[in-house]
Amino acid sequence: xxxxxxxxxxxxxxxxxxxxxxxxxxxxxxxxxxxxxxxxxxxxxxxxxxxxxxxxxxxxxxxxxxxxxxxxxxxxxxxxxxxxxxxxxxxxxxxxxxxxxxxxxxxxxxxxxxxxxxxxxxxxxxxxxxxxxxxxxxxxxxxxxxxxxxxxxxxxxxxxxxxxxxxxxxxxxxxxxxxxxxxxxxxxxxxxxxxxxxxxxxxxxxxxxxxxxxxxxxxxxxxxxxxxxxxxxxxxxxxxxxxxxxxxxxxxxxxxxxxxxxxxxxxxxxxxxxxxxxxxxxx
Amino acid sequence: xxxxxxxxxxxxxxxxxxxxxxxxxxxxxxxxxxxxxxxxxxxxxxxxxxxxxxxxxxxxxxxxxxxxxxxxxxxxxxxxxxxxxxxxxxxxxxxxxxxxxxxxxxxxxxxxxxxxxxxxxxxxxxxxxxxxxxxxxxxxxxxxxxxxxxxxxxxxxxxxxxxxxxxxxxxxxxxxxxxxxxxxxxxxxxxxxxxxxxxxxxxxxxxxxxxxxxxxxxxxxxxxxxxxxxxxxxxxxxxxxxxxxxxxxxxxxxxxxxxxxxxxxxxxxxxxxxxxxxxxxxxxxxxxxxxxxxxxxxxxxxxxxxxxxxxxxxxxxxxxxxxxxxxxxxxxxxxxxxxxxxxxxxxxxxxxxxxxxxxxxxxxxxxxxxxxxxxxxxxxxxxxxxxxxxxxxxxxxxxxxxxxxxxxxxxxxxxxxxxxxxxx
Lengths: 283, 424
Description:
- The complex is a heterodimer of chains A (283) and B (424).
- Chain A is an all-alpha fold.
- Chain A has helices spanning 2-33, 50-57, 59-93, 97-108, 115-120, 122-126, 131-138, 153-177, 181-189, 194-223, 226-231, 239-248, 252-276, 279-282, and strands at 37-38, 43-44.
- In chain A, helix 8 crosses helix 10 (194-223) and helix 9 (181-189) packs across helix 10.
- The longest helix of chain A is centred in the first third of the chain and has 35 residues, at 59-93.
- Chain A is globular and about 70 Å long.
- The relative contact order of chain A is 0.13.
- Chain B folds into two domains: 6-172 and 308-358, D-Maltodextrin-Binding Protein, domain 2; 174-303 and 381-423, D-Maltodextrin-Binding Protein, domain 2, CATH 3.40.190.10.
- Chain B has 15 helices and 19 strands.
- In chain B, helix 6 crosses helix 7 (235-250), helix 7 (235-250) packs parallel to helix 15 and helix 8 packs across helix 9 (280-287).
- At the A-B interface, helix 3 and helix 12 of A face helix 3, strand 12 and helix 15 of B.
């Protein structure tokens, strides 16, 4: 018995150590630094609430957090719709396993390139004289180039959806594949229509996948800074860019404070989501 | 401290650089060292402007040691110079960055008596005056942060003390870049940046310390306000300046903001933007794609900047000797010619002249009409015969500087307000 518990501790030790060194310690450091002070070129240890005070009393902070949440919410809805549809098609409409795997791999091909390149390639496409505008104009749909295609919220969200939809497809597809097909047959036998089966059988059983995908997408969008910078032409701000600006200007304590607030926001968000679905039980 | 043996120019390098080396040999002491210098590596970092691999290659050829170049944006450069003194040997930074970094003591003062061409450095970097009659422009003028009191000084002094903080290497006068083909009328004032005629087609750079100066030029040109010192605004002046631009931003004046050189080139070349703050080589980059682009001289004058080389405080012994050798080599002309053929100016123009053709010197420095094709150092044709440099000669351009890039006393406040402007 005693021997077993020692082995148990030993087995858990490597992972705990890794987490301690690479996750807990850096976060603890960020929290500590968030109370420090900064001059223009240095930071000094202190315990003061200045950083938080400035952050929480500035209406810019609220605007920026709102903007970040807005991006996350819109991206979430769109990636969920697309991701669910793609996963549904792969799981229930493609009959052979070979084709399922082949088509699934097809979905991942764009992800073999760097995400910066995938993002930046939108810029010439959407520009004032870009392919999208010149095509639409030559088709006679529009007379003047659409300005809102690039350097706008539209282009930011488009890039987010493009970058993160796969993170929704994978977990949903995964849970759908594990749904017992006889449940769907039973629903059909009991006289359920296609929509009823979808709503009352498939969606409830896919919830854990949806939830995991949601966590992936929301966490990535909330933490992003580079997509917003490039796709909005630096004209919009989100929390990530606020942190990046602070770091660029050597204001590490203020960057840390923003990071702590962002971390709390994201944890609250995910905590709330997890109340709806018990991922542990469902997995 | 280790000492190293020095040998004169090897015959091979003499033959290689031909007549240029004759000019170089006439100068006090550009030397090549023996075997041990091959093991010296100096780590230089700075903005992309002058951190060029060609320079590192030439250093290897002429001086024998290895120069490792890292190019970063202005913010990262400041950050690194201020916080990681051991991560570099040579900092290639701008004077306004120097104002921020120097007090940290991460850089060491340079003894001007060891700088061969010190006496030939243009006045801007010594007493602030280009010519004896020049008026010193507003902002962080290089000579105000160019000298310190002694080897270990962390202060700035007004006179030529014999201890320089940075050895000036490169500078230029910046203005607005425009697309004449898409604008179709003359532009002669900074205020045009906020002209509603260019709504959705204007851009400004998102580097606060430089952007605020461009903004100040615009605000003055609009007649909204005249600053006692654009380079050192009060909180009220910062609010006023950013207020005007926030309003313009909300009204959709700007297409985008740019932070890196490449972004500014792409915005202009693609026609997303027709008027914006821009840097000289970005203009030539657009033009070399066959797209018309003008570095428009404006009535109110230029916003100027200057950069120099600083030595890390931890540099000593053989490496320090090598660094001085590098600095002397830097000012001896080859780099100057290399930079001037891209549209920048060298701190010691007269030595650079030896490394430029008469036509190139005439075009870039004297503002004369090009006699033949003007190529950049990479061999691309920049201008055809008959072209004249935008803004004219060195003295026309550097003589019309209205302000220098600056760091203000209220810098932290300005930065916060700048972030609000970006988030607005």
